[in-house]
């Protein structure tokens, strides 16, 4: 069940998400903030329509996702993408990065089992995907587990702009602690523009004071604070409020969409926040549910990207190519990342859609595995049935 869902439509033309969504928004949204350009989505139905619209994009485009990922969960990721109506190609040698990126529509950089050669390939693929305008999804698996992983993540973030960072709570904390990365802290928030209801705990005032007191975790000296990493699973459990702040800060810092998973998933583009609760806690007992979620984020982003390109025609592709150098040059440390095609706004909703579909999949799998007799022995069945449920949800929508 959705517990708190907001969005800001900052520019009527640029930020719209299709006629259907606009109509639903108008029908259901009775709450307007002070600014004419801002609106708050309260309606569960409007968000369901967005998810179903995105599912439709996957069905009509059947995207192929370039997955640079780990050997532990590769097969699950490939099967999950097939069940969801897309497909995967997995590669890891730098020699084929450009060709494979060219024939696919999204690039997933999952850092689960890193090596120097692989990270070099990740950077080559990510840079080329940025250049083509394909969405790039970064999953910094286990980044807190070793200094080597931190270096790998920094190398990737210094060279590649991820459109979505999907991570668990510990991983988010580590990325927030990187020094001299992302935008300058002072550019993180334009508090006056935040579109947040007073009734919500995320008031502008509170964020302002947290920010000035540096509770958000971006002060320069914080990189030395050590948390005892749990490896690929999160060792920390943030409060909902902390998780929300971390998502906003992470998105702001890396000029991206941040998706921080947990018993509640929180997605932010730095200004707006969407949350998804529910699912099933057994997701934690299946290795790779986070890897699969990141791949699903890539699939949904690819569907929206392909629909955008086909709607805009070849001219749009040319525009992507023309702006590509600008994108790559400014990279993640620049604040000039080109958002003018409106795709970054779409990726906020595609990330939400992926998370929502995955939570629904988890919940339905729980129901179909006879919850009353669930003991430790049933986890294998739960794992294998995830794909059935996902296929069903993609088939009929949510
Ligand atoms: N306690 C929970 N209750 C319900 N769902 C959960 C819970 N914890 C995690 N999830 C779900 O499990 C999935 C993976 O999230 P998690 O935070 O465990 O990612 P991760 O650590 O990157 O996973 P992995 O390393 O196993 O691939 C998400 O869909 C998330 O919503
Ligand atoms: C267990 C494990 N180790 C590296 S990647 C991975 C899969 C879950 O992220």
Automatic annotation (TrEMBL):
Q: Where is the composition biased (Basic and acidic residues)?
A: 1-30
Disordered as annotated region, ranges: 1-35
Q: Which Gene3D superfamilies match?
A: 3.40.1190.20
Biological processes per GO annotation: thiamine biosynthetic process
Cofactors: Mg(2+)
Q: Specify the enzyme's EC class, one word.
A: transferase
Q: Which Pfam families match?
A: HK (PF02110)
Q: What catalytic activity does the UniProt entry give for this protein?
A: 5-(2-hydroxyethyl)-4-methylthiazole + ATP = 4-methyl-5-(2-phosphooxyethyl)-thiazole + ADP + H(+)
- Transferase listed as a keyword: yes
Entry protein name: hydroxyethylthiazole kinase
Annotated EC = 2.7.1.50
Q: In which pathway does it act?
A: Cofactor biosynthesis; thiamine diphosphate biosynthesis; 4-methyl-5-(2-phosphoethyl)-thiazole from 5-(2-hydroxyethyl)-4-methylthiazole: step 1/1
Q: Which organism is it from?
A: Butyribacter intestini
Q: Which UniProt keywords apply?
A: ATP-binding, Kinase, Magnesium, Metal-binding, Nucleotide-binding, Thiamine biosynthesis, Transferase
Which InterPro entries does this entry report, sorted A to Z? Hyethyz_kinase (IPR000417), Ribokinase-like (IPR029056)
Q: Name one GO molecular function term.
A: hydroxyethylthiazole kinase activity
């Amino acid at each position: 069940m959705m517990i708190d869902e907001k969005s800001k439509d900052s520019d009527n033309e640029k930020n719209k998400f299709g006629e259907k969504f606009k109509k639903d928004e108008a029908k259901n949204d009775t709450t307007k903030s002070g600014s004419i350009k801002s609106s708050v989505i309260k309606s569960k139905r409007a968000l369901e329509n967005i998810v179903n619209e995105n599912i439709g994009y996957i069905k009509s485009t059947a995207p192929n996702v370039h997955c640079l990922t780990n050997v532990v969960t590769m097969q699950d990721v490939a099967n999950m993408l097939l069940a969801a109506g897309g497909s995967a190609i997995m590669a890891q040698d730098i020699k084929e990065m450009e060709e494979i990126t060219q024939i696919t529509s999204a690039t997933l950089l999952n850092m689960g089992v890193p090596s120097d050669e692989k990270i070099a390939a990740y950077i080559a693929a990510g840079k080329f995907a940025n250049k083509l305008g394909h969405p790039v999804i970064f999953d910094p698996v286990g980044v807190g587990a070793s200094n080597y992983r931190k270096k790998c993540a920094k190398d990737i973030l210094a060279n590649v702009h991820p459109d979505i960072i999907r991570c668990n709570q510990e991983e988010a904390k580590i990325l927030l602690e990187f020094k001299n990365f992302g935008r300058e802290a002072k550019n993180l928030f334009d508090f006056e523009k935040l579109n947040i209801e007073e009734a919500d705990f995320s008031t502008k005032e509170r964020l302002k004071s947290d920010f000035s007191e540096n509770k958000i975790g971006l002060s320069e000296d914080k990189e030395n604070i050590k948390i005892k990493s749990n490896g690929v699973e999160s060792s920390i459990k943030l409060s909902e409020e902390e998780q929300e702040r971390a998502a906003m800060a992470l998105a702001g810092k890396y000029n991206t969409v941040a998706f921080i998973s947990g018993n509640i998933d929180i997605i932010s583009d730095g200004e707006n926040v969407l949350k998804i609760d529910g699912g099933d806690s057994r997701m934690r007992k299946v290795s790779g549910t986070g890897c699969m979620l990141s791949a699903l984020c890539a699939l949904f982003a690819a569907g929206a990207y392909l629909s955008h390109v086909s709607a805009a025609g070849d001219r749009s592709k040319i525009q992507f190519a023309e702006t590509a150098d600008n994108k790559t040059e400014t990279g993640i440390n620049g604040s000039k990342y080109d958002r003018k095609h409106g795709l970054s706004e779409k990726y906020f909703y595609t990330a939400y859609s992926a998370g929502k579909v995955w939570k629904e999949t988890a919940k339905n799998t729980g129901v179909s595995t006879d919850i009353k007799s669930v003991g430790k022995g049933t986890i294998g069945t739960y794992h294998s049935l995830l794909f059935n449920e996902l296929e069903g949800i993609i088939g009929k929508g949510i």
